[in-house]
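Following up on my earlier thread - several people asked me to post the actual chain instead of describing it. Fair enough. Here it is, all 205 residues.
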Amino acid sequence: MFLNPNYNSVASNEVVLGLTEFILLNWMLSFIRGFYFFIAIIIGNHLPNLFSNSQGSTEHISFEGLNSLVNFVGKIYQYSLYSHGIEIVFYPIILFFAYRFWMAILQFFFELFSLKNGYGDEEIKSLCHRVIQRSFSANFLTLIPIVGNALSYCLFCVYFYLGLRKQCQFSNIQALSFLFIPLVITGCATLLLLIYGILVLRLLF
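Reply from S.P.:
Thanks for posting it. Predicted structure:
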């Protein structure tokens, strides 16, 4: 199932995780990502020492400015460490609400486009769950350092689009409309978080 974009049919032996298993598996991935992040923090904490050990070759650099830079980077690392730790702790709750959000939006679009095609409510829920679960399997790409998050986000959109087209029988316009609305919401949320981060940094410095 994971990283498998084939939506043309549902195999009889396909493994479909329950909601609890789905959340626990993705939580495990968040712990692995957290491990990568903490390694990066350790490396980052040693970089100022490398600069300070090369004082002889950088006498023209203001030590006061260097200390300010080190303190600034240290506070950034501290803030990032706390925020990432909180994200790991509350990731199951975040993922649960994200899952419910996509389920609600997808079921709403089924009603909006009148695409039930004789399916009952439970069959629609099962279909939505399968599409969402396959789409979130793109989270495995977040294990790739640096570019993993970007690749995961792109593949998530591709998988969701394929699920809407192949299993939910959405048209191209309907599938793109479905993906566009959450992207606008995500963009607004990202902008708010960016503004919040700038305000926090201004308070710190």
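Residues 5 and 159 are 6 Å apart (CA to CA). That should answer part of your original question.
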